[in-house]
Design goal:
The protein is of the alpha/beta class. The chain has helices spanning 12-25, 42-46, 54-58, 86-89, 93-107, 123-129, 143-160, 175-193, 208-215, 219-222, 227-252; strands at 2-4, 30-34, 69-72, 76-79, 112-116, 135-139, 164-172, 196-204. Strands 3-4-2-5-1-6-7-8 form an 8-stranded mixed β-sheet, sandwiched between helices. Helix 1 (12-25) crosses helix 11 (227-252).
Length: 264
């Protein structure tokens, strides 16, 4: 699944990382792919310095398995991107296809694939987003976040016909604030785009979040009992339930499929 946002600064990468950890806690294998290819940040968030990254893979200087960074034993890994490589920021669809072809066999080892996309509506973001089974758009209650996320959904709908999205509301002070932000997006997308948006969950403001970022550790690992960690586990449970429901639907209707592989 791809995780994206209309603008930066909404906590998207942090949420991606912690959702993967929550699924790992549920004994699910997952791999994180940093798709902000020229402006890597997942490795920075974790305080690691990968020896090789996806630039090496694209240039034929490394195999897929050589660039994998193990985050936890037996099932939680990272595919790091490069930093300060402008030609990777606007990677065209042909090169994206080459990259994914090199990674496809590796992906088959995992139950969940998370694409942490860059913010905004550049071509790399759009084409990566259309390749996944599900799309999560991270929003905050701020008007600029809602406006930019609406623009992102609008472009994906008009360019690729995508009409189904999950919304995750971050940095909220109350359930009411989360509901209000979601409803504004949902109504606008349904009324003007004919797009369906579903509420995936909300993550409340938590004083432990900046502490975890400073320490370069996932907050769900360092502060497992914090409000934000409890929110993330609820969202992870919903993702597991959605996958279970989809698997059941496929079993009942063989015409449906997961796509080229069994990655969610």
């Amino acid at each position: 699944m791809s995780i994206m946002s209309g603008k930066g600064g909404v906590g998207k990468t942090n949420l991606t990382l912690n959702l993967a950890y929550a699924l790992y806690e549920n004994y699910k294998s997952a791999i994180l792919m940093d798709c902000d290819l020229g402006l890597a940040n997942l490795d920075v968030l974790l305080g690691i310095s990968p020896e090789k990254n996806m630039q090496d893979l694209l240039q034929g200087e490394a195999e897929a398995g050589e660039i994998v960074c193990a985050l936890e034993k037996n099932g939680l890994d990272l595919l790091p991107a490069a930093s300060g490589v402008p030609e990777l920021v606007e990677l065209d669809e042909d090169l994206q296809g080459v990259l994914l072809e090199k990674l496809n066999k590796l992906f088959s080892r995992y139950e969940f694939l998370f694409l942490d996309l860059g913010a905004g509506i550049n071509n790399a973001v759009l084409s990566f987003a259309r390749m996944t089974h599900e799309r999560i758009v991270v929003i905050t209650p701020e008007p600029t976040s809602l406006t930019d996320s609406y623009a992102l959904i609008k472009v994906l709908n008009s360019k690729y016909g995508l009409n189904h999205f999950y919304l995750l509301v971050n940095m909220v002070d109350s359930d009411r604030e989360a509901k209000t932000g979601f409803e504004r997006m949902k109504v606008a997308c349904e009324k003007f785009l004919g797009v369906t948006c579903h509420f995936l969950g909300a993550v409340h403001n938590d004083p432990n979040l900046p502490l975890a970022v400073r320490d370069q550790k996932p907050f769900i690992k360092n502060y497992p009992d914090s409000r934000a960690s409890r929110d993330i586990r609820i969202i992870a449970d919903r993702i597991l339930a959605l996958r279970g429901a989809k698997a059941e639907a496929i079993a009942q209707n063989p015409v449906l499929s997961w796509g080229n592989d069994n990655i969610y």
